[in-house]
Amino acid sequence: MADSRILVAVPKHPQGEGAGPQQLRMIRDAIETAGFEVRWAVTAEDADAVLRTEAGLAAALVAWDLPQVSGDGPGTALAAPARSFARTGRTLDGTPGGSAVLQRIGRRFKDLPVFLVMADEGLGNLPLWVSESVVGYVWPLEDTPGFIAGRITTAARAYREAVLPPFFRALRRFDDAHEYSWHTPAHSGGVAFLKSPAGRAFHDYFGERLLRSDLSISVEELGSLFEHTGPIGEAERNAARVFGSELTYFVLHGDSTCNRLVGHFSVTRDEIALVDRNCHKSVLHGLVVSGARPVYLVPTRNGYGLAGPLSAAEIAADTVAARIAANPLTEGAVSPLPQYAVFTNSTYDGLSYDAAPTARAFAASTPRLHFDEAWFAYARFHPLYAGRYGMSMDEQTFPGQDRPTVFATQSTHKLLAALSQGAMVHVRSAPRAPVEHDRFNEALMMHGTTSPLYPMIASLDVATAMMDGPQGEWLIDEAVTEAIRFRQEMVHLRRRIESAGDRPPWFFGVWQPDTVTDPLTGERLPFEEAPPELLRTEQSCWLLEPGADWHGFPGLTEGHCMLDPVKVTLTCPGINATGDMAEEGIPARVLTAYLATRKVMVEKTDSYTTLVLFSMGITKGKWGTLLDALTDFKAFYDADAPLERVLPEAVAAYPRRYAGLTLHGLCQEMHEQLRSVRLVELLDTAFQQLPQPVAPPQHCYQRLVRGETERVRISEAAGRVAAAMVTVTPPGIPVLMPGESVGALDGPLLRYLTALESFDRCFPGFRSETHGVIIDDGTGDYLIECLTQGAER
């Protein structure tokens, strides 16, 4: 942390005349001599800019009488105190500009040492909260510059050390010891790489520090990932505190391993598990390992083909009991009562549940509840998501004997700042199904590795520290704010295009409410005209109202489901949320192919929607570039530009198919194909009308590894039993599970797969990625893995 900086926010310019500025310059020089950089600010606005952009601050020196030039600066909404008038040093309500800076620091940093510069004011004139916000007071002319600078830099060094979380701190100390390595890995801190040209290039690219921190589990002073001792154990306990759990475990193979681990622990062979059909394939892998018998719950879907939540009716005890009774796999189960339920929260498209009523509904059926929160690790750290995540289920929110044990599995790396594959399992145990650490740890060791990557552990530790205290809310709030700005700008741009009259009046939409209600006034506002402060703080603005056309999901109840503002779904012309198709349309695959040529890579593409994520790494420049690319696509489409100009790589790869075609022509051909085969409708039907279960997933896996399966063309697969799942990806949601019947040739699944096969043949280069489907290179036929005849039982 050699680049640590100290903010000096005083109303005097460092080049000013007089004893005051001279003394401050000498303090600055002494701070810099001690090895710190100084960021000088002479107004509250200047200080705010430093606070927003300098995460490496180690201390601050703030003058109480700091001027605040205007109330319109970027930090005003957070920094508080009203508007100010020019250069008075006070806001309109008489509050000094330094007050705003102190409040901003309190929202941005956890325990940053702040020294308050005083002029003639006495301490008795300060508000009481100020003494809780600072570590000391400075009268510049009453002590020597070296003494004052020493107080500041000493506090900065202590903060710099304290800000490091447990494991990362220990890892840095171990690295600084420069010990010789006599253990694995064999590259010995990167030295082995230096003995080969390719290895040297690898070493130079990643750097010595990363390789020196790639250590063996034999390093006792860093603790054990399986014994949960030392700094690793301390880091996990710290994560439990920050994420609000009783137990937290670091997992180094992503949320996929977390799901397998929790499923393996929670349900055993021939026990019943309730599974959200909108689940990730790793949930099924957990059932394969455990030998459980799944009973699937069916989520809602809308006209765009987006998977919605499980409705309140779907998870009600009587509905669950009816699904269990109707499922052939439950005959002969250990118990007719399920032992475990798992559902996705939030969904890939940003839909989260009201956790307490959802947990109560599930609790009537099962003692263990698993929130798969792969995409929702940040929910605890912003008030907008209050009560929408698994670890909010404690004795206060769900009192009484019926409370289930709750697991929350999170891909920390997805939308928090951890390295790829970094993940966590959070546990809140309940008396109905207590989780003993030693028993859970046995399952963890079965799915973990004895050769962990220490930088990944450190990244989980640091991701935790980043969310600890006010800084966590600040980081998530920034992402929420930028997403709201983008959403509103998209609507404003569409309105301008519609009213311009000089171009075709269409533009891409955003999947969100058309209007919102201010709960304080009851006023209904167009979304784009709503105050950003309302949208970033009021959860009701994002709730899916029952029956609203904009979302298109049937059967929702009040407050059940919320749209996450940071997951932005762009909609293309051609279809709406209720499934009505237009004469013309722009399939999203064409749009995302163009965006890729502009180096804009999206998260997910469906038939007429594409998903972009506003993570903590978002910037105005990043979403401004996306906005520009969308307007350029519209210009190309409206001008009927040659495809060679818009998608040159597609034309070069398939000249016989696309040469001479225009962008408008390609979009229309693709839209008409999707319309004629009714692909979106077929997908919806395939998800809603579940295939008939024939054999448990574990049985199918056993047959697969013993070679008792075969690949069958979908044109010949009617009546066969799937041996492997068929998964539409992204987002990785299965349409066919192992052990399920493929159904009739004119049934929902084969009709959908046949339509998909036809689309892929017709539009090479734009095919979907469907795991479990093998494409015959010679014919383009779809093949799926099925049990051989007679191997169903």
TrEMBL record:
Give TM regions: none
- Residue ranges annotated for the Orn/Lys/Arg decarboxylase N-terminal domain, each copy included: 23-159
Q: Which GO terms describe its cellular component?
A: cytosol
Q: Does this UniProt record's set of keywords contain Lyase? A: yes
> Which Gene3D superfamilies does its entry note?
3.40.50.2300, Aspartate Aminotransferase, domain 1, Orn/Lys/Arg decarboxylase, C-terminal domain, Type I PLP-dependent aspartate aminotransferase-like (Major domain)
Q: Which UniProt keywords apply?
A: Decarboxylase, Lyase, Pyridoxal phosphate
**Pfam families attached here?**
OKR_DC_1, OKR_DC_1_C, OKR_DC_1_N
As stated in the Swiss-Prot or TrEMBL entry, residues carrying the post-translational modification N6-(pyridoxal phosphate)lysine are: 414
Keyword check for Chloroplast, yes or no: no
Q: Name one GO molecular function term.
A: pyridoxal phosphate binding
GO process annotations (BP): L-arginine catabolic process
> What range(s) does the Orn/Lys/Arg decarboxylases family 1 pyridoxal-P attachment site domain occupy?
165-621
EC numbers, comma separated: 4.1.1.19
Q: What is this protein called?
A: Arginine decarboxylase
Question: Origin organism of this chain?
Answer: Streptomyces griseorubiginosus
